[in-house]
Amino acid sequence: MAQALAPKGGKGPIAMAIGDDCSEIVPDPGHSILLTTDTMVEDVHFRLSYFTPYILGRKLASVNLSDIAAMGGSPLGALLNLEVPPGLSDPANPFWPQFIKGLSEQLARYNAFLIGGDTVKTTCNRLALTLSLLGQVKQGRAIYRHGAKPGDLIYCSGPLGESACGQKVLDSKRFFLPLPVKRRLVKRHLDPEPRLALGQALANVGVSAMIDISDGIATDLGHIAKSSGVRANILASALPIPRSVRIFAQRLRHHRPLDFVLFGGEDYELVWTVPARNEKKMQKALLPILKRPAIRIGYMTEGEGVWLLEAGSKREITFMGYEH
Q1: CA gap 278, 296 in Å, rounded
Q2: What CATH number labels 2-138?
Q3: CATH homologous superfamily for 153-316?
Q4: Where in the chain are all domains bearing CATH 3.90.650.10?
Q5: Contacting residues for 68 by C-beta, under 8 A, at least 6 apart
Q6: What is the pLDDT along the chain (324 residues), one digit of tens a residue?
Q7: What is the DSSP annotation of 21-42?
Q8: Do 142 and 88 contact (CB within 8 A), yes or no?
């Protein structure tokens, strides 16, 4: 754990970290600073009945790392703020070493460090965790939500819907699933992996807009469409529906696998747009990372919103994803 906490004397671009009133970061020449923050609240974003402290720390790191990935950047240092309820207020509680271990180890995997923060006691009975993450990206290479143009192609980095299914498995005991399927769905919810290497590669191949999928592709692609002033058209037949989601959906009534793919949250895959002229270059750059072609799921046109094209019909699904 110690090596994942930035030392007081500084390491790399971190000039001063834990132990002073502020942390100081000096970015590499020719780079811009990125800053993101996420809050996770007990019984809203997680339940301690099935999140171990270690895995909770990892996920808090991952959701912030995913935001840096969506900009094409590299993480540097993180600030942790805790609102601690009475039941966890004892510093000697074994919860905290395991939580910090999970958080700091996940940050360290991507060369980031915990560099400071604050802790307060609260009379509320819910634990609240806020992580703010600093990153950097080469000047002029950051990928925003507002760059998509009509004619751009829409791509996705991987399978969708598994995290939402995993949360339902954890929240209910009534699902009888093959053990490998259950394990995969639960892991995808509890312990997602941020797509940092992929985001950094995309920053170099002429991608026009990008976002990570935290609230479901119907909502997150909606942010790109709204920010860019264009319409996103998703081909239902092209969406990556994993076998695990198909099996899970069979256990439910009135649910299609496609519903989890479109509207389920917390997949933390990336969705991006790319001009057709850059498509071959992009695929070539991503093949060593993905070990397969990236998944084209649609295209941009003039207009607004997110539209699903399925079996000769179309319907608007803008911002119909996960809310929390």
Answers
A1: 13
A2: 3.30.1330.10
A3: PurM-like C-terminal domain (3.90.650.10)
A4: 153-316
A5: 34, 36, 74, 75, 133, 135, 194, 196, 199
A6: 334 555 555 556 766 666 667 777 778 889 999 999 999 999 999 999 999 999 999 999 999 999 999 999 999 999 999 999 999 999 899 999 999 999 999 999 999 999 999 999 999 999 999 999 999 999 999 999 999 999 999 999 999 999 999 999 999 877 789 999 999 999 999 999 999 999 999 999 999 999 999 999 999 999 999 999 999 999 999 999 999 999 999 988 778 999 999 999 999 999 999 999 999 999 999 999 999 999 999 999 999 999 999 999 999 999 998 665
A7: SS-EE-PPTTEEEEEEEEEEEB
A8: no
Q: Two tokens at 93?
A: 């509680």
Q: How far is CA 302 from CA 120, 151, 233, 305, 314, in A?
A: 49, 9, 10, 10, 16
CATH 3.30.1330.10 placement within the chain: 2-138
By the 8 A CB rule, do 129 and 60 touch? yes
- pTM attached to this predicted model: 0.92
Round to whole Å and give the CA distance between 87 and 107: 27
Both tokens of 8, joined, read: 């007081």
